[in-house]
Amino acid sequence: MYDFAYHKPSSVADAVKLLAADPDARPISGGQTLLPALKHRLNKPSSIVDLSGIAELKGIRREGDRLVIGALVKHHEVANSPEVKAAIPALAQMAGTIGDTQVRNRGTIGGSVANNDPAADYPAAVLGLGATVVTDKRRIAADDFFQGMFTTALEPGELLVAVEFPIPEKAGYAKMRNPASRYVMAGVFVARTKDGVRVAVNGAGPGVFRQAEMEQALAANWAPEAVAGVRQSPDGLNADIHGSAEYRAHLVTVMAKRAVASAG
Predict the structure, then answer these.
(1) Domain FAD-binding PCMH-type spans what residues (predicted)?
(2) Distances, alpha carbon 243 to alpha carbons 116, 123, 205, in Å
(3) Can you say whether the dihedral through the CA atoms of 77, 80, 86, 92 is positive or negative?
């Protein structure tokens, strides 16, 4: 680990000032990605801005037909929140399956969404539900936020402060995990909302993406059988020692069926 300066601001405004003053500064929330990178000397920030003391980044609340989750809310809090369970049960179920107990008690929703790991769970929920990412500067629609592997619409110094999830009529999530790393090999989040059906796929490719054919099939018939005949193309999907692109393409259909079944 390289030397760095350490800051712990108490407000979003102070955190943004620190990040703006130093282009090599990096924010940290749960540290599930940045800390391992620092330990292996894969990242060399000049300073670390610890967000954990900022109260305005915490909390879960319902505002009309939307569920607002602060960036610093931990996975285990989402999994056990009465508000989340009542409004979007699939989101609580998803949070309860992220990583292991240690990860769920340290990792945060804001860190996961901002990092945009292709195998992370939350990006699928954000895209699948058509959520809005709220920063210190603006509001970004899910369809515009995720731009590729570890790449988002966030600008340098811009801080993610909350995620707003519209409450769906039905939603479900299913994934196939690598038994060793527990990262997602293929996952599918499905949602039926007042604006239509959305299907988001994570883990299978270099980034989270929507599956338009499945959306059309489910819009016509909300049932597992509707997506059973939809075949995901393996073109552009991940291929490694854990599974070929063709295998992951098959998993997308299987996980979609399970996700719809879990949604009811």
Answers:
(1) 1-170
(2) 21, 22, 12
(3) positive
Query: What region does 203 belong to: left with phi over 0, alpha with psi -120 to 50, or beta?
Result: left
DSSP state of 134: E
Residue 34's nearest CA partner among 18, 50, 21 is: 50
- State how far the alpha carbon of 17 is from the alpha carbons of 5, 10, 11, 26, 174, in Å: 15, 12, 10, 12, 40
Q: What is the DSSP string of 220-238?
A: H--SHHHHHTPPPP-TT--
Q: What is the DSSP string of 61-122?
A: EEETTEEEEETT-BHHHHHH-HHHHHH-HHHHHHHTTSS-HHHHTT-BHHHHHHHT-TT-SH
Q: Which of 259, 156, 141 is nearest to 199 (CA)?
A: 259
The answer, as to whether pTM is greater than 0.70, is: yes
Q: Which helix (H) or strand (E) holds 156?
A: none
> The domain spanning residue 204 has which CATH number?
3.30.390.50
- Structural domain span for residue 37: 5-50
User: Rounded to 5 degrees, what angle do the CA atoms 236, 234, 129 make?
Assistant: 80
How many domains are contained in the chain? 2
pLDDT per residue rounded down to tens, the chain (264 residues): 899 999 999 999 999 999 999 999 999 999 988 998 999 998 899 999 999 999 999 999 999 999 999 999 999 999 999 999 999 999 999 999 999 999 999 999 999 999 999 999 999 999 999 999 999 999 999 999 999 999 999 999 899 999 999 999 999 999 999 888 888 999 999 999 999 999 999 999 999 999 999 999 999 999 999 999 999 999 999 999 999 999 999 999 999 999 999 998
